Fold this protein.
Amino acid sequence: MTYRRAAIPALVGGVLLTALLWWAGASVDALRLQGATDALGGRMVADLQQWLSPWSYDPPDAIRFGTGLLGDPTTDGPRYLSLYETAMQVRFVAVFAFFVPGALFLVRRLPPVNHRSVATLFAVWAWGMVAGTLAATVSAPWRIASHGRGGYRVLPQLATAISGGQQVTVVAAFVAAVVTVLVAWITVRDAGPLPLEEVPVRAARLAATAGTAVVALSSVVLSYHEVGASLQSVSLSGRLLSEPGDLLRQWLLLGDWTIPLDGPSGHWPLYRLGDVLLLAVVWWALRLLPVLLTRATVPALVVGAVCAIVVALPANQLFQAMVTSVDSGTQWGRQHLTGALGGGVPAALVWGLLAGLTTAAVLRPPGGGPEDTVAPPAAAHPASPPAGPTS
């Protein structure tokens, strides 16, 4: 698939994702009306405001009226307001800038033909969530400074800013992924056959197992409550970088093994089945990646591993929310799901990079030659034409 064909769906998806997030942020004003509270209920309105506010151009009251800011509100207030507007401009531009290259790469390496459509949909959906997280990360410094507390607990504030608005990003990224894959299917359907690549089964399973073991290091070992508490309490010398605990947890931990400690002990294994589900989804995706990709290059395997972990995270979160509903009631299960949905993407970036590199190293060891791979189908190598008459 050429770059020209792949660029069209990537641009369409990028514009749609940016527009959806902007529209979601613009809906915060409507939630403040009494009619919204009467129709949706106070709890639902409060949750929606919390989810949508990170994407809203409407600043908080502390910035709008200058209350709680350092300095003179009449002179410094407009400057802080300008910082907030800059943060939102950076955030929306960054969403588009991060989504388009990733979607372009995925659609080109994983075109929605030959039974690849579902895999392409999940991959682009995952990359939409990654783009939202990266956009929140790069715009966080301006957003933190706009609150007038840029020098106070910088790293915990950064962790909070990165994790904000993750729920709405999940929904917007899914809608954008559906449209992106649909447009990609239309643009690629007349591009000619794109056969599936043949990969040795044993090598693919071994590579997937090695990559999954890397992911398990975070979801099982580092996420254990004692290890996670040690990461949370890490402290360094210096003023700005003295409290990296929240940020380290967010970028290193794919799970949380402390959830059921205050509930019935018999339900603790049920929560752990969610971690098993996460690792099973990751293993299955890494097993199929070398076959589904048009070329199993190292960048393609790395991006595919990141997307596999991002897709597996909502499956784990949904499963644990179901267990919480059975354990503590439907309301607590819904609150658990809405609070955790979309989380773990920063850690998925770190461990997806490592898992993809590990998978590529096992699948294609250094010094491997053509004899290490299975020959592609005969259709991919047509027989040479018969020699013509010689004089």
Summary: The two ends are 42 Å apart (CA to CA).
